[in-house]
TrEMBL record:
One of its GO terms (biological process) is glucosamine catabolic process. It catalyses: alpha-D-glucosamine 6-phosphate + H2O = beta-D-fructose 6-phosphate + NH4(+). Its EC number is 3.5.99.6. It comes from Proteinivorax tanatarense. This is Glucosamine-6-phosphate deaminase. Belongs to the glucosamine/galactosamine-6-phosphate isomerase family. NagB subfamily. The keyword Hydrolase applies.
Length: 241
């Protein structure tokens, strides 16, 4: 694992966008795994600016998002599909058919999970996976538990996660209680992983995921066994390292 500590959120976002752009420069048809939440917003903003300056071309890129709330239709304002369109896809030259998210309102969720996983493997797997981390150490929506899902699955969200994500909704009772999330193996099979964390509230999770021990109680700790992981944090998230 390579650990990079940046001074603040701005420099972390800048470095993250440069790492993604370098990946696309080296492999224009890269398959990117993408994350939502507050953390990657600065990275997306910088990538849009780089695209406007003709410094990066997304026309051959394919993307797969980590997760989607179960029960929300793709056009729901709080869906991750809407988040990705508003914050990234609608501002770059990526063909919409190359942007994939699980369908939160799928009639048959088992089929949806299987189909999503199948699409990822038919594209050859993820070349470059961007991850955030939950305060409880979750990655995607793989929550701390006695065991973790290997492949894409319907998952129950922990109350801590519902509470943390309620800032995007009018109240915590509007936050869906379940989500479709890619599994741990799907993430671990990515050729490169970039995990971003900013702010003091992530310091404990970052310390736990780098402790030298692997436990399903801190899903991100499994990343310690990945062969090409960059942990990019700001000083506050890295303060216990
Ligand atoms: C959600 C997402 C995760 C993300 C996490 C952290 O739970 N499913 O993929 O990493 O939030 O979000 P934030 O960056 O807003 O702290």
């Amino acid at each position: 694992m390579r650990i990079i500590i940046e001074k603040d959120y701005e420099s972390l976002s800048k470095k993250a966008s440069l790492l993604v752009a370098s990946q696309i420069l080296l492999k224009p048809d890269s398959v990117l795994g993408l994350a939502t939440g507050s953390t990657p917003l600065g990275m997306y903003k910088n990538l849009i600016e780089m695209y406007k300056r003709n410094e990066v071309d997304f026309s051959k890129v394919t993307t797969f998002n980590l997760d989607e709330y179960y029960g929300l239709s793709p056009d729901h304002p709080q869906s991750y599909n809407s988040y990705m369109k508003n914050n990234f896809f609608d501002h770059i030259n990526i063909p919409p058919f190359k942007c994939h998210l699980p369908k939160g309102n799928a009639k048959n969720v088992v089929t949806e999970c299987y189909t999503y996983e199948d699409k990822i493997s038919k594209c050859g797997g993820i070349d470059f996976q961007v991850l955030g981390i939950g305060e409880n150490g979750h990655i995607g929506f793989n929550e701390p538990d006695d065991s973790l899902n290997v492949l894409t699955n319907l998952v129950d969200l922990r109350s801590q996660t519902i509470e943390a994500n309620s800032r995007f909704f009018e109240s915590s009772c509007q936050v869906p209680k379940q989500a479709i999330s890619i599994g741990i193996a799907t993430i671990m099979k990515a050729k490169k992983i970039l995990l971003l964390a900013s702010g003091e509230n992530k310091a404990e999770a970052i310390a736990q995921m780098t402790s030298g021990h692997v436990t399903t109680k801190v899903p991100a700790s499994l990343l310690q066994t990945h062969q090409d992981l960059i942990l990019l944090v700001d000083e506050q998230a890295g303060k216990l390292l």
